């Protein structure tokens, strides 16, 4: 029938290339509502058809339905003797594969590419599924078949009753209406074939049209240069077909890019561009949304889904219709999903449901939140599916972190670089008397404490951020009327090498401090007398000596005391009585001390006293007061009155002393002398001269 084998010449490629890229160039596809269009487009495949290519032959089972955009397809019928004629032609006005739509198994005609160009094709099974949905595509397809039958019937009438000139005009105009541009890549032989007449007759008729200035032809192609002239000359068969085709598109509810009068190539192109722009926008929003969009029918077959949805399920975007959503849901969640669907379709207001999707080869199991609404008829479910696995994991991790923080015995806080609290733990909020940790978020130290303290904390934070170093300190803060000790650690929070805030830990160490003080005191105290023990007394003696070396203007006196004949008390009355005497003497001693002075028990019944900022006279007066008080005191025990006396040695600590114990040694020597001289008396160490010290004391004795 065609003298060329299937091919594309450069001119055809240029023409096709100009038009190939938009499914909306096909008027049926352009008439589909955007939603339905979006669903089909993904399943379609673009093909560049070569002139002479047979899409299917009579008796074939068509594997695809074609929606030509810039190609033109002839539907032809061939007799047993081999002669053929064109039944109808289909271009961007329709589809090829009507057998499928009408439910037939095999094609009753042949579909052959008459003019090379582009087409989109949909697999037969996908088309059947779409037709089964009863949507706009079905309506349009049936209407198109009606228009096609009109074209066939009109061709039959025309071929029988009208002149070849008119038939040629009809054929050329039908051709032009179905493909872009005004150029027809046809030979006289081809036209003759299509019209079922001899080539010479076509050449003659074409010659007339060319002579009338309506067309121009050269070998292989024809250009229409006066379309109105052709329309004036054509018979009514063309207009009958055209009217039917316009009705097909005009009565569709959805606005189509091409309406009203037959669009010329330019207006058609604009309409396509607008439609394409709108589609691109819509498709982008729909497909690149960060959540999955799904439309399910009553049995939860996926009618439509976007790119994110396809990725979530691990299926191809074009595979909608082949899957049920249930296949991706873990079985234990199916009942809830079904109930959710029933409630949504039944108009009950259920916010969402959460189900777990089974793992795919691209991702592990995913927890998704589904929000849904019914379509207008309450039959389909429009779902937004959000993968909340990460959100849930994050939430759980936050709960763990919160538990960790709240159960931490420290107060913990995080501050931004403006010293605003980003997070604090429950102990922190509790310590400052706030109802919850959350209530402190966004607040500052100025909301918690005095301006002065808040200023200091702010300065600390800045110092930590500026230096990038940790800081720790102990401080005493008045809290609820009581002074409490806190130990605080602050560190910078570093992200990508920048200090963006601080993290702090603090704990109340009031009790620890109290215990430490108690331990220190216990370690320094003689348990029997509650005076300083020997170790503590000697330590203080050392410190005092060091002070004296720095400041010799404040003399220090060291006194040694020893109870006289103490052994006899022990021996005669027992050890407990001896202890009682030691305690009594200690209390007498303590009563005479000024602040800054220290008394210690440095041996069994030996005591020492350190008098700071003293002088020989004052030290002697102190010693004398003690001696007299002891002598005047007696203890009644086992109905016996026990009299006690004490001997005392005094020495001044000298700046020349190389050790503190030298002064103690001199006081001990003086004590020894006091004992030797008869006890119950005071003796002053050799240096400084004794007469200075004893002035007035001797007189008292
Ligand atoms: N009850 C009691 N006795 C103690 C304690 N420590 C030491 N002693 C006794 O104190 C006595 C000290 O006796 P001595 O050193 O001989 O001195 P003294 O009897 O006081 O005689 P002079 O010091 O020379 O007057 C001993 O009997 C010790 O056992 C103590 O903690 N309690």
From TrEMBL:
GGDEF domain: residues covered: 554-687
One MF annotation (Gene Ontology) recorded for this entry: catalytic activity
One GO term (biological process): regulation of DNA-templated transcription
UniProt cross-references to Gene3D superfamilies, sorted A to Z: 3.30.70.270, Jelly Rolls, PAS domain, Winged helix-like DNA-binding domain superfamily/Winged helix DNA-binding domain
The organism's place on the tree of life at top rank: Bacteria
Segment forming the signal sequence: none
Annotated keywords: DNA-binding, Transcription, Transcription regulation
Domain Cyclic nucleotide-binding: 28-130
Classification via SUPFAM superfamilies: cAMP-binding domain-like (SSF51206), Nucleotide cyclase (SSF55073), PYP-like sensor domain (PAS domain) (SSF55785), Winged helix' DNA-binding domain (SSF46785)
PROSITE patterns to which the protein is assigned, alphabetical: CNMP_BINDING_3 (PS50042), GGDEF (PS50887), HTH_CRP_2 (PS51063), PAC (PS50113)
Domain PAC: 466-521
A Pfam family per the record: GGDEF
HTH crp-type domain segment(s): 162-228
Name listed for the protein in its UniProt record: Diguanylate cyclase
């Amino acid at each position: 029938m065609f003298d060329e084998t299937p091919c594309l010449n450069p001119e055809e490629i240029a023409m096709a290339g100009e038009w190939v890229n938009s499914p909306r160039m096909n008027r049926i596809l352009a008439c589909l509502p955007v939603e339905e269009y979006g669903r089909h487009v993904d399943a379609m495949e673009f093909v560049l058809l070569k002139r002479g290519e047979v899409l299917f032959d009579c008796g074939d089972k068509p594997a695809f339905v074609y929606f030509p955009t810039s190609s033109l397809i002839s539907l032809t019928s061939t007799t047993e003797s081999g002669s053929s004629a064109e039944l109808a032609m289909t271009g961007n006005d329709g589809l090829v594969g009507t057998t499928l739509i009408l439910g037939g198994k095999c094609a009753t005609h042949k579909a052959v590419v008459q003019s090379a160009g582009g087409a989109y094709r949909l697999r037969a099974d996908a088309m059947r599924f779409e037709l089964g949905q009863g949507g706009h595509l079905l309506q349009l397809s049936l209407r198109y078949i009606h228009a096609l039958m009109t074209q066939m019937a009109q061709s039959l009438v025309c071929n029988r009753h009208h002149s070849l000139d008119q038939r040629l005009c009809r054929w050329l105009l039908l051709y032009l209406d179905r493909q872009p541009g005004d150029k027809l890549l046809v030979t006289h032989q081809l036209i003759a074939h299509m019209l079922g007449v001899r080539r010479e007759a076509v050449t003659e008729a074409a010659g007339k049209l060319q002579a009338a200035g309506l067309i121009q032809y050269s070998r292989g192609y024809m250009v229409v240069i006066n379309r109105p002239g052709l329309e004036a000359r054509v018979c009514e068969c063309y207009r009958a077909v055209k009217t039917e085709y316009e009705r097909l598109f005009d009565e569709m509810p959805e606005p189509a890019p091409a309406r009203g009068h037959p669009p010329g190539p330019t207006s058609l192109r604009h309409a396509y561009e607008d439609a394409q722009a709108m589609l691109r926008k819509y498709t982008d929003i729909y497909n690149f949304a960060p959540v999955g969009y799904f439309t399910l029918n009553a049995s939860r077959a996926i009618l439509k889904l976007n790119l994110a949805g396809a990725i979530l399920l691990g299926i191809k975007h074009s595979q909608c219709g082949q899957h049920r959503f249930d296949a991706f849901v873990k079985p234990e969640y199916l009942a809830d999903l079904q109930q959710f669907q029933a409630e949504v379709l039944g108009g009950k207001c259920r916010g969402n449901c959460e189900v777990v999707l089974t793992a795919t080869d691209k991702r592990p199991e995913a927890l998704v939140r589904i929000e849904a609404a019914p379509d207008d008829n309450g039959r389909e479910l429009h779902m937004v599916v959000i993968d909340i696995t990460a959100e849930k994991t994050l939430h759980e991790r936050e709960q763990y972190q919160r538990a960790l923080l709240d159960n931490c015995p420290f107060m913990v806080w995080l501050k931004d670089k403006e010293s605003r609290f980003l997070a604090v733990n429950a102990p922190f909020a509790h310590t400052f008397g706030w109802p919850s940790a959350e209530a402190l978020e966004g607040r500052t130290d100025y909301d918690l404490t005095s301006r002065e303290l808040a200023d200091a904390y702010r300065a600390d934070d800045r110092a930590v951020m500026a230096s990038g170093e940790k800081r720790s300190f102990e401080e005493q803060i008045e809290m609820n009327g009581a002074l409490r000790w806190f130990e605080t650690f602050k560190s910078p929070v570093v992200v990508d090498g920048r200090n963006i805030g601080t993290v702090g830990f603090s704990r109340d160490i009031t009790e620890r401090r109290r215990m430490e003080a108690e331990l220190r005191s216990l370690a320094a105290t003689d348990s029997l007398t509650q005076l300083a023990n020997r170790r503590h007394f000697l330590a203080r003696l050392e410190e005092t000596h060091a002070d004296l070396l720095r400041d010799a203007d404040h003399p220090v006196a060291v006194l040694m005391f020893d109870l006289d004949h103490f052994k006899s008390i022990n021996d005669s009355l027992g050890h407990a009585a001896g202890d009682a005497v030691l305690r009594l003497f200690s209390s007498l001693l303590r009563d005479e001390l000024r602040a800054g002075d220290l008394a210690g028990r440095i041996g069994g019944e030996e005591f020492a006293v350190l008098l700071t900022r003293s002088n020989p006279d004052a030290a002697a007066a102190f010693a004398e007061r003690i001696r007299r008080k002891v002598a005047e005191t007696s203890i009644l025990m086992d109905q016996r009155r026990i009299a006690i006396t004490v001997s005392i040695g005094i020495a001044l600590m000298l700046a020349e002393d190389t050790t503190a114990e030298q002064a103690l040694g001199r006081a001990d020597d003086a004590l020894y002398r006091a004992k030797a001289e008869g006890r119950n008396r005071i003796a002053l160490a050799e240096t400084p001269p004794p007469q200075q010290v004893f002035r007035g004391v001797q007189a008292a004795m």
